[in-house]
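Here is one chain, start to finish.
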Amino acid sequence: MKRISNAMKKTIAFILRGKGKNIRNGWWVMIFLFLLAGFLFPLIVLADSYDFELSVWLQTGIIALVTILCQTMRGKPLMEISGSINKVWWKELFIGLLLGAVLMLLPALILMVGGVVRWQLNYISAPVFCRA
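Its structure:
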């Protein structure tokens, strides 16, 4: 087996780590996705085998767990993900929620005005609505 040349080692190190000692962000995205798949796929198989549903809350918890795990592996604080909760944070949250609502309502209104869709109310009893 041939030895890897010094130039090849430097190239591989540069691809993985860049100029600093930290792993490049693209590799962290790949690590995050592999860890997420490693947690979710077995649960999906178990859910199918034992006939239970993976709720949205369970999936959200798994995503949060993998995020915390990756941040711990990187040696970075969790505040890097969520930011510092202050007045600016609340303002940006409100603006983001407002823009998100506009992005959902605008196409719906365009489709309604164009006559493509028609809206109607469906009456759902409270117990049925709470289970959804």
